[in-house]
Amino acid sequence: MDGCHNCSVHKPKKKTMTMEVKIISEELIKPSSSTPQHLRTFKLSLLGQLVLEPYVAATLFYSSNSKEGSCLDVRVKIDLLKKSLSQTLSRFYPLAGKIRDDFTVECDDGGARFVEVNVNMSLSQFLTDPDLIMLNKFLPCEYAAKNSPDDVTHAANFQVNVFQCGGMAISLCNPHKLHDGAFLSALLKEWAAAARGGGSGKGGTATAGDLMAPAEVFPVKDLWLRDLSVATLGCTYKKGRCVTQRFLFSGPAIEALKARGTGPTMKKPTRVEAVSGFLWKCAMAASKRKSNGLRRPSVFLHFVGIHRKTDPALSEFSLGNLLWVAAAQCKNTDSDCTDDMLPLLVAEMRRAISKIDSDFVSGLRNDKNLISSSLEELRGLGSDGEVDCFGCSSWCNFGAYNVNFGWGRPVWVGNIGFNTPMFQNFIFLFSTRLGNGIEAWVTLGEEVMDLLQEDPELRSFATVNPCPLAMTSLL
């Protein structure tokens, strides 16, 4: 992917060589068994229109030095990935089809897109100081090209990037209207289990009923929700130059933030609440400094999974976007950013998220007007241009570092370095490899990010852009 002048990623050091990737092959991996005729049309769910991002993506990096699978050469590994993917696609049959329109997938068994790429450096060279924009070259789709037929038509897109040392980066980049991050996690685990010779990563298997459940719970007939989502969530989008930075919070730092986030209004914050609340606080402080000391009202939009909030609860194999948005507000424009503010922010986040309970989800399912009114309420919170909006999604419980294809667990899991003309004030949270820390990928406007990353309070709790190879020692 060529860089875009509208967005960049700060790099602490200049690289000695430019990373290049070369496509070796591209093919379609067909499912190992045919899809029955009565399952040839798969319906998308209504909530697939809620998320505005075109893709859900992830890249998992694997060392060639792992003791597990060390006897396997690269060619054997790639052939195993193809064979196991074919087996996995027979269970997740819509992924071997094509996106027909905004409502359906044509399950024609045409195959998932599979790209093999060679990288002109070693894995350790890249991970010493990863360039987050170059990271996008490991993806099988052009992230900014929302309307490219080659990228959007296929329901599933995979890419295996082979480094000179034999290390690998395995990535997937699928249309977000088809599924969310929770399903992406389940898919990766099932694929890995098949590669290791097992039938399922969870001891169960996906049924057609599991896959179709989101569309049955939230059927779609037109695009009214997408239009409303654009108006509602558009407040998180900005024009101009943006920066994506990584902030690593160690286990002890998170425990300290949980203690600081405890107060009269907040008891026992979770690690995700503590970290996201702290980043919200620091982002507001940076915005205040940018505005010459003027504190702006702020809204924090947290995407919440609702798989377990339906009655009955839906399987992790449910193929759809089972997400809703919780909106926390900070209207206080007078007080300083003090230690006492963190418990208030965390409590406000918990209050907003707690509203999305089983009763609320039941209402969404049965009352279209509740969906409209809820989004209209969210729209009112951020429609004023004088309000700062931030979005957040946590992948901390997805278990990406447990995805083992037979040659060990990933040494690092990457997301996306944004370089589009429009960007979001957005935070992605990931658990670290040992599970005790959190890595936050934060995208903000360039000027606000310059102020944020120099915040001494933030730096006292987080390491900025750490080398993934050294992250374990920092936790």
From TrEMBL:
InterPro entries: CAT-like_dom_sf (IPR023213). Pfam families: Transferase. Signal peptide: none annotated. It comes from Punica granatum. This is Stemmadenine O-acetyltransferase-like. One of its GO terms (molecular function) is acyltransferase activity. PANTHER family: F21J9.9 (PTHR31623), VINORINE SYNTHASE-LIKE (PTHR31623:SF110). Belongs to the plant acyltransferase family.
